[in-house]
Amino acid sequence: MILEALLVLFALVIVTHIIDYYPLKLHYFKKQKWDLNIGCGPTDGGGLNADVVPRKVPNFVLIKDIYHLPFKNKQFKTVMASHIIEHVDDPEKFYKELSRVSENVIFLIPPVWDLAAAFNLPEHKWHFLTLGTKFVNTLPARVKLPYWWYHNMFGQRIE
Can you give the residue ranges of the Methyltransferase type domain (predicted)? Predict the structure, then answer.
């Protein structure tokens, strides 16, 4: 009985993460093209694509410092930051820099119901206290995840 309950819980965690990361993300990317797609991963946002690691997407720019982007003030009309804000050390500072280079900042974030995001020990630093996934020109309420010590020792670094 306990094993079955754990398997159901595990399946629920995986399914909610897949729904958040794939269909919802693709839905927003199909609706609009972005002037700047930062933290692009393998996704082409239709404009300039940027990330902290090299990617094989069109119009790619490698970012060395997310808090000092190599772009002019208000160079872009709209920037998309998809599933990146939960990785950064200082979300407010990153948001301020994105606001400097763009008129509009759109975040796609893992919501509170994406439990896999909360337990992503090596990568995520923040968990967002919202049911929504898309935020325009604002950051939702969030909590710093409690395993900072693990992340500091073994986790992904985005600086």
Answer: 62-101
Domain that holds residue 114: 2-154
In the three-class reduction of DSSP (H, G, I as helix; E, B as strand; rest coil), residue 65 is classed as coil
Mean pLDDT, 10 residues at a time, over the chain (159 residues)?
A: 82 75 75 88 89 94 96 97 90 97 95 81 82 92 77 60
The continuous run of DSSP H or E covering 13 comes out as helix 2-19
Q: Give strand pairing partners of 36.
A: 48, 79
Is residue 104 in some structural domain?
yes
Q: How many domains does the chain have?
A: 1
R_g of the chain computed on alpha carbons = 16
Residue 159 falls inside a structural domain: no
- List of residues 6+ apart from 140 with CB closer than 8 A: 109, 128, 129, 130, 132
50: domain CATH number? 3.40.50
